[in-house]
Amino acid sequence: MIYRKWGRTVRWENGTLVRVEEAGEAREEDGVFVAQPIEHRVIPSASEGSRAHVVAAAEGILRCAQDDIRIERLIVTAGVALHQYSDTQWQDETRRVHVALTRKPWRVLVDDANVAPVAGALARCEGERDFEHVLVPPHIHIDVPCEKEQLPGGLDGYGRPIERRRVDGEPPNFYRPSYRVRPVRRWMNVRAIPFGAMQAAPRVLALVDGGKALVEDGGRIFVTRLRLDRVTAAAESGEMLL
Amino acid sequence: MTRAQGAGGGAQIETLPPIAVIDELWIRGALAERRLMHGRAEQRGGEIFAIDERDDALVAACEEAIARMRGVVPPDARVRLVSRNGDATMTVELNGISIVTTPEFLSADVQLLRTPPAPRPRPLRPAPCVWHHGSAAVLLHEAVGHPRELGVPEIEWPRWLRIDTPMELRRASFSDVPLRRMTRVVVSQEDAPFALPEPRIDVQLVRGGAYDPLTDVVTIDVAVPRFTIRATRAQIAAALAGAAGEPLRYPGVVCSREGQELVVGSFAPLLVTRELP
Asked: Staple partner for B145: which of A213, B29, B165, B259, CB 3.0–4.6 Å?
């Protein structure tokens, strides 16, 4: 069986805008994975909206640099891809942002477009402080030991639906980040299964290099070490109390 | 790189060199993975348009290089063969330790993996280190090369030490942004002091390294024997105690920046460092 992909992406990478058109196929025969480009045939159209979105997002993030806050790394991508595996065909659109903000001695990592509040908070950071508990919002992804579940949504690297499952044993779905990469089993759309009682605590705004986080505590901003060895509670919303 | 005036007298259009890459993964003598990638790109000002167009001559050159490497794949190792525009690079891993080499040097380099040096009593760290087989090139790749790539101000190094790091705009694939990258690191010495310290750690092979411009800290993961160094550039400069001989070719550095993996030639003489954290 052959997997085929036709795609276009627009990427802002540290000041350069890159537009890519490519198409390729991958097959696995007798355990050997082979990938190569193919004729373009139909590449889904990426509207000028993608380019405008990427440029606007990047320029907005660049404006967050202020005083001693630097934008060390900025990647914004928008892409559209048409996938085909056997008789299944599907299309997806992706938008991603990766930002590294620095204010010595911290490097703050942001994986969504809402960078300005994080940059503002980093500028007001008073130093490092330990907290008994912190609240981690659902859009910040960390790997912690607790009971988890895979939420339904989307298709995997073989076009199979991602279904609700308890995270236990071998993942039923495969992750294929590119046609050039052999798909690997992976849990997707994972969240902690709700348990325990949530309580007020400083809220994590972003992750900081070195196993730390930028947190807001009653309007004051600190960097704190994350204790990733335990989860005290998890909410239906996906928020976790560490 | 060719240049032309853009339509309407706008930004210049630069045609970036086309790229073709074939890579294959061989595990214990059997082919496990094979990829072909090719394309070209044009740059106009701060914008690059890249498409996976095929250059038959480049693909043929890659196929030829891959065929040459296939003939010498060690049957008991995990081996990645990569040909970029017809060059030939082999990453050979045995027992969790790897080297990067070419067919020309394969036999001698794989011997380093097969016959680890006779064990010596190893002092507790920190201890002075003697960097064998050109492995000091990796230390200085991180401590000198990456700061130069990033435009970080130089610090003072010993007068007897020369560190040559020629730079070029390089990119790993047709859709990558060209970055100012080292092509090689050549460390040499002129009238350097030299004395073998006792006790000492003999560094034979290095697994990898990193430089963090935010903290100015260099991290070196030594593979044989296994330990990790974390030190600032200033600490490394102060720890350089001496060197002897001509630069030796170290078998391999695959350097990754912004996800772009490129081979960087590495050469260094026998080098001695005082205690490093």
From this structure: B165
| Distances B14 to A205, B45, B175, B203, B217 between C-alpha atoms, Å | 42, 9, 14, 45, 37
Structure tokens at A233: 């509670």
In a domain, B149, yes or no: yes
Task: Quote the ipTM score.
Answer: 0.85
Q: Are residues B61 and B183 in the same domain?
A: no
- What is residue B142's predicted lDDT score, i.e. its pLDDT? 97
Mean pLDDT for B85-106 is 93
Of B113, B145, B174, the residue that ends a domain is: B113
- Start-end of H helices in chain A: 48-62, 116-123
Q: pLDDT digits over A208-232, tens only?
A: 999 999 999 999 999 999 998 889 9
Model confidence at B120, in pLDDT bands (50, 70, 90)? low
Looking at this protein, which amino acid is placed at residue B204?
Answer: Q
- B136/B207 same-domain check: yes
Give the pair of three-digit tokens for residue B128: 């002075």
Q: Average pLDDT of B27-53?
A: 95
pLDDT band at B7 (very low <50, low <70, confident <90, very high): very low
Q: Which of A21, A48, A68 has the most B C-beta neighbours within 10 Å, making it the best mutation to test the interface with B?
A: A21
Q: Is residue B44 part of a domain?
A: yes
CB nearest A18 (choices: B34, B52, B175) = B175
Q: Of B113, B146, B180, which residue sits at a domain end?
A: B113
Q: What is the mean pLDDT of residues B214-238?
A: 94
pLDDT at A45: 61
Residues B134, B263 within the same domain? yes
Provide the number of structural domains found in chain B: 2
Q: Do A104 and B47 touch (CB under 8 A)?
A: no
Nearest to A105 among B32, B50, B214 (CB): B214
Query: Distance (Å, rounded) from C-alpha A112 to C-alpha A97?
Result: 5
Report the C-alpha gap between A8 and A10 in whole angstroms.
7
Annotate A225-236 with b (16+ C-beta within 10 A) or e (fewer): ebbeeebbbbbe
The tokens for B156 are 């003072």
Taking the mean position of all CA atoms in its chain, how far away is CA B155?
Answer: 22
Residue B220, in any domain of the structure: yes
Q: Which residues of chain A fall short of a pLDDT of 70?
A: 41-49
Is residue B6 assigned to a domain?
yes
Mutate to test the interface with A, among B16, B34, B51 (most CBs of A within 10 A): B51
Work out whether strand B129-131 and strand B201-203 pair parallel, antiparallel, or are unpaired: parallel
Tell me, what's the pLDDT at B116? 67
Domain ranges for chain A: 1-99
Specify whether B164 is located in the same domain as B251: yes
| Same domain, yes or no: B105 and B166 | no
In terms of residue numbers, what domain contains B53? 2-113
Instruction: State residue A225's pLDDT score.
Output: 96
